[in-house]
Design brief:
This protein has 13 helices and 11 strands. With 345 residues, it is α/β, with parallel strands linked by helices.
């Protein structure tokens, strides 16, 4: 490569299926935007088949820079190693079993070059199964203020779709090595005070959903870490919950499979108290957060009541907090069953 690339693409490999890895690599090498370096880190020193595939690809395309860890160090540390080797102004994340659509890089680079106030941009994603069949869609909000507010509940950016500036507020981006999982969520909460996020409302990647993913095998630990990040985010804005309130918040936001742990009356009282506390903080967009809490409460009600009762309780709650959210009502109708109490599934 004759000149320093504008973009560094960062992908970590562990134990993906060979066909999926080939498809992932080929989708990067086939991008319409071509001036990038492709950093691949292999974090499974005992694996040989994938190593051979990567070497074969690297032999035919000099944009690939391949590193093989002498020992397994985990995704977070591998990502940080890749960041230390990156020379581009922009960093694009890529998972080793997903597919980037051909114009992904072109659109994301154009977006970041046009909007200097945005430091991190993601996109929407098609969901594909192990065979590559399209089985769904994943969309995200677009407006920076909305994404910042949603950090109280989840990561508002789809990590494999992200492109970000290597330096934010004159400091290099780095993941917290203390977080084995949800490292992206932790990073966004940490960066949220100094930068703005956005999503391009286009489908730029295909996200592969299968039981072979690391997240499928470690879901409980991943959920626990994500919840700890949520609590940290609340406390950053001086919102402190009791142990009981934390359990209620976890029940609403982490899809805990025991909705009978608290009654709807207890949940409603907690949410009203939480929203009242949010309203006194002028650094928080209470409207966006309240709208999301209403939606979470609607989902919770569908697991307890017939449709008519759930609708009545939701309306009372919305009136008590002074905000009517039509989408929550529509979601309630969609998720409930007219003649049966919903199960906990």
């Amino acid at each position: 490569m004759n000149r320093q690339p504008l973009l560094s693409v960062l992908m970590c490999v562990y134990n993906e299926l060979p066909q999926h890895l080939e498809e992932a690599i080929d989708s990067i090498l086939s991008q319409t935007y071509t001036h990038f370096e492709f950093i691949i880190i292999h974090d499974n020193p005992k694996e040989q088949l994938l190593d051979g595939i990567i070497h074969q690809k690297a032999a035919t395309d000099n944009r690939i820079r391949y590193y093989r860890n002498p020992e397994n160090i985990g995704l977070t540390r591998s990502l940080n190693f890749g960041l230390s080797k990156a020379s581009g102004e922009f960093i694009a994340r890529m998972d080793a079993d997903d597919i980037s659509l051909p114009d992904r890089f072109a659109k994301q680079i154009a977006f970041l070059q046009a909007k200097h106030d945005i430091a991190v941009v993601g996109s929407w994603a098609y969901i594909i199964n192990s065979d590559g069949k399209n089985i769904g869609k994943l969309t995200r909000a677009r407006e920076p203020e909305t994404l910042n507010s949603l950090l109280f509940f989840e990561s508002p950016l789809f990590h494999p779709s992200v492109m970000m500036r290597k330096h934010i507020s004159d400091k290099p981006v780095v993941y917290d090595s203390n977080y084995r999982y949800s490292q992206d969520y932790e990073l966004w909460t940490r960066l949220s005070d100094s930068c703005r996020f956005s999503n391009i409302p286009c489908f730029l990647i295909c996200y592969r959903y299968s039981d072979d993913q690391i997240s499928s095998h470690h879901l409980e630990e991943q959920q626990k870490i994500a919840f700890s990040i949520q609590i940290r985010q609340l406390e950053k804005y001086k919102i402190f919950l009791s142990d009981t309130e934390k359990e209620m918040f976890r029940l609403l936001t982490r899809k805990v499979q025991n909705p009978e742990l608290f009654s709807p009356v207890e949940i409603k009282k907690f949410l009203c108290h939480l929203i009242a506390g949010l309203k006194i903080n002028d650094k928080i967009n209470t409207g966006i957060i309240t709208r999301h809490l209403i939606h979470l409460y609607a989902t919770y009600l569908t697991r307890h009541y017939y449709l008519w009762r759930a609708f009545y309780e939701l309306l009372k709650f919305q009136l008590s907090v002074g905000k009517i959210h039509p989408y929550a009502t529509a979601s309630l109708i969609k998720n409930n069953k007219l003649w049966h109490v919903c199960s906990n599934e």
